[in-house]
Amino acid sequence: MNAVTNCKVEANVASAVRPILEVRDVHKVFGGVRALNGLSLSIAEGEIHCVLGPNGAGKSTFFKMLMGTERPTMGKILYKGRDVTRMPSFGRARLGLSVKFQNMRVFGDLTVFQNLFIPLRRSYRAHQIPERVEALLSQVGLQGNAQRLVRELSHGQQQWLAIAMSMASDPEILLLDEPTAGMSVEESTKTAAIIHELNAQKVTIIVIEHDMAFIRALSARTSVLHYGQLFAQSSFDEIAANPDVRRIYLGTL
Ligand SMILES: Nc1ncnc2c1ncn2[C@@H]1O[C@H](COP(=O)(O)OP(=O)(O)OP(=O)(O)O)[C@@H](O)[C@H]1O
Ligand SMILES: [Mg+2]
User: Fold this and answer.
1) Per-residue pLDDT, 249
2) Protein residue whose Cα sits closest to atom 10 of ligand 1
3) Are residues 194 and 217 in the same domain?
4) Burial tier of 179 (Cβ tally within 10 Å: 0-12, 13-18, 19+)
5) Burial of 119: CB neighbours in 10 Å, binned 0-12, 13-18, 19+
6) Are residues 133 and 54 in the same domain?
């Protein structure tokens, strides 16, 4: 059985809330590789939405389509009902989208303050920045660390700083690609709390992850991608109990 049948019910629930983002029948071919193969997915305003799928399923490509760093070969991307398929990344950032890609770099030889100063400079005047830095740091549990050199922070703290940098533009939607990669269990738990806190401040958050304990802690609507398509969409508990999803993770489908 293709678990997409579950999606109809969930899609109806989601459509009760205004979709903030919609991906409609998106295809992306890189050379000969079909990274996305007719992906359709809708994100409701104000939700946390998790995206799962085996390696190579098209998850990061999905984010590149949303952010506009790559264009679809076919299909449409809508932001609050507006077609942004051909809009460049900076235009989408201005509309309220922000992303922390996999392996996002922070500058180890600079202080935490200096790392945040760079993205904040685009939206704020110099005298407003110290206050914004402290506000962002407290959102990610790093208050009081502004003058520390980034290379002296733990891996988890550096990742939270990267999240704070992605929040510098006050986005409406934050895309996080594997935010807990390389983190300890304790750091992952804290990351889930940070995401809940940001979401409580009305930020819609889409999270790509493999870490099941972390996704369980987020307890969010979850989409599973497989071969560049939506394979299943449901609550995390239903997804975790879905034998078809278990099978694709084990590589037997
Ligand atoms: N720029 C590119 N050029 C060629 N192939 C690409 C490119 N980007 C992605 N691909 C291919 O497209 C497919 C989907 O890649 P993508 O990075 O979206 O997967 P993913 O679901 O994020 O995987 P992972 O869990 O490993 O991060 C893969 O087969 C990948 O090798
Ligand atoms: Mg990826």
Assistant:
1) 80
2) 35
3) yes
4) buried
5) middle
6) no
Residue 16 has pLDDT above 80, yes or no: no
pLDDT digits 0-9 by tens, 25-43: 999 999 999 999 999 999 9
Q: What is the pTM of this model?
A: 0.91
Show the domain range for 135.
Answer: 106-168
Amino acid letter, residue 179? P
Q: How many structural domains are present in the chain?
A: 2
Both 162 and 44 in one domain: the answer is: no
Give me the pLDDT at residue 150, please.
97
Q: Is the dihedral of CA 235, 140, 117, 153 positive or negative?
A: negative
Same domain assignment for residues 134 and 236? no
Closest ligand 1 atom to 58 CA: 18
Whether 141 is covered by a domain: the verdict is yes
Ligand 1 pocket residues where CB is under 6 Å: 30-31, 33, 35, 53, 55-61
User: Which residue, judged by its Cα, is nearest atom 3 of ligand 1?
Assistant: 30
pLDDT in tens, 165-186: 999 999 999 999 999 999 999 9
